């Protein structure tokens, strides 16, 4: 990789990089040499000018995302090496199987490639770059994905780059594929539209939590709020839930849910889907549901919004706890990275107190093995969940 400049850290501000944390914040930087532009590869040195690592430069709070820790500049094969290692981990932990052909291949910092997300939908790879450097290197990354998959004899029909920047457009970097595209997850089928859908088109991070929900759903009346494409609904119906209602404020989401019900052999006319605000929908449903899923979008995307977000989580959980049947089960989640596990737990406790019911915690949930968290980057744990038993 061509190194375009050198970042020198202030005295005493090298502790985090020496502990393999991949973020260099602007306040830790003493000086920068070279006429750097966003996306450039840079060398990072301590105050004594000892090389500590190499990564992508981008003007902002996080100024460098370190990709390689060491004294020797990495070669172009660094992407291939890291993607190969990530694929091996997915195979070793049995994420990929004859029943599941879709998974997250690269999870940013968790796989040593900060700023990069790669989701595999059967034979199609979707790339999202959360940094200028990863966007700049997208063609190299495409070749590395192609080589890593071919080495394990996996088919790759297309690579789609889904742009998050106003400066670039989404495009196919390799091949073409029609959407919606059918995938398989624990033997359940889902349509994915990476061109128009949220994120990369599907929320792969809830795979194992959906499976657990299915195991608890037999014979129960189930409410799936913020249902998006109906993932939890399909799992509940496959496991013989008595009744499932899916609710989302987006008509597009409800259309997708109905398509996924039909794809799995269920008649959408007998499984009711509602385009509605969740709070409005549950207002008059006391003692109707045995099992409720609360999986809202991120209420807080930055720290400044956290206080208001916690009010939203508290209100949502309190309402669900009040209205669920005695002996009911609630799956409740937060995907806000700025809301840590303890804060989310404390907020649900507050909701329980407000609702005035006795509650037991059955499970503490997180993201699956294809969304790994680096031991040195705890910020990578963003998905938090609780399974509650309401007496």
The CATH superfamily of the largest domain turns out to be Vaccinia Virus protein VP39
CATH class of the largest domain: Alpha Beta
Approximate strand percentage: 25-35%
Number of helices: 10
Tell me the total number of β-strands.
Answer: 20
Q: Residue-averaged pLDDT, rounded?
A: 95
- Runs in which pLDDT lies below 50 for 5 or more consecutive residues are none
How would you describe this structure in keywords?
six-stranded mixed beta sheet; 391 residues; Archaeosine Trna-guanine Transglycosylase, Chain: A, domain 4; 3 domains; alpha/beta; seven-stranded mixed beta sheet; Rossmann fold
What does this structure look like?
The structure is a single chain. The protein is 27% helix and 28% strand. It is α/β, with parallel strands linked by helices and 391 residues long. The protein folds into three domains: 67 residues, PUA domain (Archaeosine Trna-guanine Transglycosylase, Chain: A, domain 4, Roll); 102 residues, Transcription Regulator spoIIAA, CATH 3.30.750; 187 residues, Rossmann fold. A hairpin with a 2-residue loop joins strand 8 and strand 9. It is globular and about 65 Å long. The termini are far apart. 42% of the residues are buried.
SSE map:
Elements (H helix, E strand, L loop, with lengths): L2 E7 L5 H4 L4 E3 L3 E5 L7 E5 L5 E7 L4 E8 L8 H15 L9 E6 L8 E6 L2 E6 L2 H5 L1 H14 L6 E4 L9 E5 L5 E5 L2 E5 L14 H10 L4 E5 L5 H8 L4 E6 L2 H13 L9 E3 L2 H5 L8 E4 L11 H18 L4 E7 L6 H15 L3 E7 L18 E7 L1
């Amino acid at each position: 990789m061509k190194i375009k400049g050198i970042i020198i850290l202030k005295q005493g501000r090298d502790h985090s990089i020496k502990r393999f944390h991949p973020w260099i914040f602007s306040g830790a930087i003493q000086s920068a040499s070279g006429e750097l532009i966003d996306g450039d590869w840079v060398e990072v040195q301590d105050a004594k000018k000892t090389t500590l690592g190499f990564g992508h430069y981008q003007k902002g709070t996080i100024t460098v995302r370190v990709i390689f820790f060491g004294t020797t500049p990495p070669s172009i094969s660094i992407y291939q090496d890291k993607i190969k290692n990530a694929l091996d981990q997915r195979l070793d932990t049995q994420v990929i199987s004859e029943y599941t052909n879709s998974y997250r291949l690269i999870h940013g910092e968790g796989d040593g490639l900060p700023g990069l997300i790669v989701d595999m939908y059967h034979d199609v790879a979707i790339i999202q770059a959360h940094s200028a450097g990863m966007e700049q290197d997208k063609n190299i990354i495409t070749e590395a994905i192609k080589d890593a998959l071919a080495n394990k004899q996996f088919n790759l029909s297309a690579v789609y780059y889904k742009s998050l920047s106003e400066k670039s457009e989404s495009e196919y970097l390799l091949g073409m594929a029609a959407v919606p595209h059918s995938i398989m997850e624990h033997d359940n089928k889902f349509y994915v539209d990476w061109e128009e859908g949220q994120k990369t088109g599907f929320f792969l991070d809830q795979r194992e939590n959906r499976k657990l929900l299915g195991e608890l759903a037999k014979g129960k009346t189930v409410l799936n709020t913020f249902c998006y494409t109906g993932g939890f609904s399909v799992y509940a119906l496959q496991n013989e839930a008595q009744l499932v209602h899916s609710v989302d404020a987006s008509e597009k989401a409800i259309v997708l849910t109905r398509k996924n019900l039909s794809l799995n052999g269920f008649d959408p006319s007998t499984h009711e889907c509602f385009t509605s605000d969740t709070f409005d929908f549950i207002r008059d449903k006391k003692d109707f549901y045995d099992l409720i899923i609360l999986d809202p979008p991120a209420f807080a995307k930055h720290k400044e919004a956290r206080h208001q977000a916690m009010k939203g989580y508290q209100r949502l959980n309190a309402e669900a706890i009040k209205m669920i049947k005695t002996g009911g089960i609630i799956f409740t989640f937060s995907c806000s990275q700025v809301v840590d596990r303890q804060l989310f737990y404390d907020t649900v406790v507050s909701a329980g107190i407000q609702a005035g019911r006795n509650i037991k915690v059955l499970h503490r949930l997180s993201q699956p093995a294809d969304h790994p968290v680096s031991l040195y980057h705890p910020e990578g744990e963003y998905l938090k969940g609780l399974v509650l038993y309401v007496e």
